Amino acid sequence: MEKYKILQQITDNTSGKLFLAENRTNNQKVFLKTVALPRENTAYWVEQHKKNGYLLSQVQHPNVIRSCDFFINNHHAITALEYMQGIPFAQFIPSVTRYSFCEQVEMAMQIVSAITTVNEYGVVHQNISPDSFIVRQNDRRIKLIDAGIVAYQIPKGYLSPERLQRKAAPNSDVYSLGALLYVFFGYALYPQENFLGKMYHTNHLPPLAPTSHQENFQRLSQLLQHTLEANPAQRLQNALQLKNELKEIYKAASSNTAKISKTIKKRLSAPIEPRKDDEEEFVKAKVARAKKKSRRKLMGILLVLLVSVVLISMQLYSSQQKHEQNKKAFSYFQEARQLFQQERYSDARKQNQKALAIVEKPLFLIQKALIVFECRKNNEDVSLANELARKARPTLEKLNSAFAIHSLGMMYTHGIGVLEDRNRALNYYNLAMKRQYIPSFLEAGTILEKQKKYLEAAKVYQRAIKLKSPEAFERLALLHLHKRLTTNNIVNAEVWLKKGASLGSGRAMNGLAYFYFNTYSGAQDINESMSWLRKAVKYGDLTAYYNLGKFHLQGVFVEQDTQKGLKYLEYAAENGHANATFELGEAYFIGKKVEKDHRRALVYFRQAAFKNSVEAVGRLGDFYHYGYGGVAEDHSLAFEYYTKSAEKNNMLATHQLGLMYYYGRGVKKDLNKMIPYFTKAAQLGYAESMYTLGLMTEKGIVRAQATDNRTVAIYWYKQAAAKGDVRSKEALIRLQAK
Length: 738
Prior knowledge:
Blueprint: E1 4-13, E2 16-23, E3 29-36, H1 42-58, E4 67-73, E5 76-82, E6 87-88, H2 89-92, H3 101-120, E7 133-136, E8 141-144, H4 161-164, H5 172-189, H6 195-204, H7 214-227, H8 239-254, H9 256-269, H10 279-341, H11 345-358, H12 362-374, H13 379-398, H14 402-414, H15 422-434, H16 438-450, H17 454-466, H18 470-481, H19 490-502, H20 506-517, H21 526-538, H22 542-554, H23 562-574, H24 578-590, H25 598-610, H26 614-626, H27 635-646, H28 651-663, H29 671-683, H30 687-699, H31 709-722, H32 726-737
Antiparallel strand pairs: 1-2, 2-3, 3-5, 4-5, 6-7, 7-8
Pfam families: Pkinase, Sel1
Protein name: Protein kinase domain-containing protein
InterPro entries: Kinase-like_dom_sf, Mitotic_Regulator, Prot_kinase_dom, Sel1-like, TPR-like_helical_dom_sf, TPR_rpt
């Protein structure tokens, strides 16, 4: 573990070891949780631990600790967690007697709130025990340190009956929460008892509580017994119910003293009835009071009738008005859906916002979440998309409409409001496809292509073609053009693309532009390619906007026009096109036909990085490496960005990693680690790396193993010269003259 220095061991239990450590690069303290991996099916367990760490990195909740790193070392899964000064919850429990009943309930609410948040991501926590939490003593802040995706060997006292039988129910974690809270409150009630003793007392004896909180303790005891029902159907159904019940107990306990004071005050201020010596006067007064009471009762009845008539009238008017509003909102929503499917995200967002301004519905919310995610520019957009999706999800799961089912698939595809799970997404898409919902065919095909199941993807697209999906023609044609299928028919590919174009698919038109540009028709036909590209722009295809914008900016195949090029690129970028966003950043970074502006370029690169642009991530590394645009140099952060980009085969970022090891920037100077990065960048086709390897081999900085340095240097110079590198051509002349 070169990156971290172990300071001390905090816990060692069945769920792994917890260490306090320090990050060597930035000297920040972290927790390291290490778990030994099973020898069998190791790859599966590594993936589960990755999901566990990823979920902790996504959750933003005051009672859930966040993860910042994950790696494998010596057959152990290691997760780095944010540091919080505190002690393990198991050590804190014995000191609970120092706190009041209200404070104890408030701490219990924190525990349940953390589990409720994990549940909202579609995860049933499998490891609820005192070892799953850490507590800061000065303000009683409790944080969950495990997302519960990987099941550990936790004490049986915390396992539900169905878990002991190796089964699980959606509310299994409610039982575990109940057991944990019994132990927690048990220390306050029976501090001398062990775990089993506390369980016995809480089940069979009345709680030993102060008189002022006797009723609240009894209510709490009944609640916890309800969480420990052996039959899951008779148990509380989820952690959210438990949280709400605890909240009510907390409110009752907090206001208990105030209620007592109010009762005493009322009794003291009540008027004393004067004694009547004259019986006749007393009877008259009594009759008068009865008449007065009767009149008041009659007035009350009349008032209730009047209010009821007014309310019914208002309700009828409101119902009619609401119907009109819903009708108008739904029309906006339908327009937004069509625009979204056409990838016109900016226009779709405006229409969807109009619908939400009239009435807030789950379908509108999830569509806004998807639009915001597609056009994300920063962390705030990602957080908003997650929040909207989580808010809409409970209702979507109850609906049986194709759009609702498809939306759930989109959530699991991209990890919006839930943990990313593409197999689960495919299940939702299959359900929507049975209802002939065309976008689900396209999304399912995309996932299958990423899984390299090209034949299955082709079958899905063929089903969509039967439903007259223009995009499906383009998708199937490209599978043939890219030789993804065993039988590649170029002629049929052209026919399918033209058929899709005839149905109004901008993507199919852009596909035809690609077809004629890349000589699939036998010879490159620039005029035909540009004709189809312009048609694709008219039909709103974002990739066509990107290509035409780039061509106008560079003056390639079309007349050079900076303003027109920027206009096309900005439209595509605004609607979520990652490459267009990067191209704008690159234009301002290099000063390509526009005035150089590093600060403006940085904004575009950050937005493109959020849209998963590998090149943009590499450029962010350049900003922190060299301090462009007023950014403070941070070689450690630059190394991190370069590494992320190089993992996706970005040759520029890979070359920069080689330079960092050569100069010792952000890392320790190491020529042995430098060579693989330069070699990989050269193999990816980067001429600068080829020249650098040739020069270093010629100078003896790098020594050839299989042959002499001169031969290897000439090899790399020739490779770079073929790429047009002038320095390499001069070096070849120099070496061949010797």
